[in-house]
């Protein structure tokens, strides 16, 4: 056994490969957002249609993130990591050469398969890293998702100005190809597997309610919240969600283990993720718009797309710092404490945006506070979930947590879009009160996330280099004790 371990790739090289994959996925999440008007003009389409470039990616990633995580738990995380990165590369290539909006939307659906990169990354870290390195590595990988989102906003405008929007896909394509090849060569195969087959039936049920919910939420602002299509989609989601839960609970081989989802640490952190996602993704979407609002509107700063991205650079740096510091802080104070601090700082930053946004320096301070909060909270949520579940369920548990955060982001962005645009100036620009009410609503959800985070119970995981039945049993005993 010792000889076999000695031949395994050094965990630091493995981590480098994983970081490239996570960075590629996170860039594709955010780089497209600021340049949708450019894509709309280049592909001769309308605003309602071009929003599907975002919606298709969101829905696809939400479906495939937990599924790919679960398949990785069963057949091997390294194999599925290569598959997920390969899908990102293929989707990026197709998007880069797309000549019509339909092809671009199809490419974004393929890219969404890459959502499995994050849960697979957490699982591989737990399998391969020394015990004392697991928390900091997971924290950095999780924070990298938020960092990549910030970097995408920063570089999108200058990149399109200097080259074209096609390079928003060429660059991630190159990164993912490198990461996929490196993963196939250097990332060790998973020593931990979950026996059994993949439950296709429950996967389809999950896909139905997720698609109905996310399409309804994402398109509600365009179609009208009271339209028959939106109401019909919400009815389908409301019916199919409990059907899916019942089917999973009764299945001998569930895709998502409902007993795992009922672990107190898991469900409370998932609730925090839902509330936290509402604030984080909506801030990513609406702070740049606020900065770009012409000063003649009585607020805003009239900056360009490129300038608004650069003004968010301090936020990105703060997120990176928070992610790096999270490991050491968690070792000293615990991941729960970091989650409470991260959610509280998010509330502070969003309250600030609601009531003190008249000067640029105010916005820079508030977005920097938000960046630090994102880095700490992302790391804490990931570590708490990974620590609370058996090693064989790391991929699917972290995948669902990521998925729930994304669903929260979709809901938050859609609701805030409705609030912000509820009152418009004669020029068609939202009134300042629209943004104030929107940011205030996000502050309320962030405060709720902070309250729930205080209630999160903590499980001390058994994390080790060589997983085995005894360690798994010890972990299950710890979870059972906490549940009781």
Q: What descriptive keywords fit this protein?
A:
484 residues, mainly alpha, Growth Hormone, Chain: A, 2 domains, 79% helix, disordered N terminus
CATH topology of the largest domain, which one? Growth Hormone, Chain: A
Beta-strand portion reads under 5%
Q: What is the 3D form? A: globular
CATH superfamily of the largest domain: MFS general substrate transporter like domains
According to CATH, what is the class of the largest domain? Mainly Alpha
Order of helices and strands: HHHHHHHHHHHHHHHHHHHHH
Secondary-structure arrangement, i.e. CATH architecture of the largest domain: Up-down Bundle
Helical percent range? over 70%
Count of beta strands: 0
The residue-averaged pLDDT reads 82
Task: Give the tally of structural domains.
Answer: 2
**SSE-based structural type:** mainly alpha
Tally of alpha and pi helices = 21
Largest sheet: none
- Distance from first to last alpha carbon: 36 Å
Low confidence ranges: 1-6, 461-484
Main location: membrane
Subcellular location: Cell membrane
Pfam families: MFS_1
InterPro entries: MFS (IPR011701), MFS_dom (IPR020846), MFS_trans_sf (IPR036259)
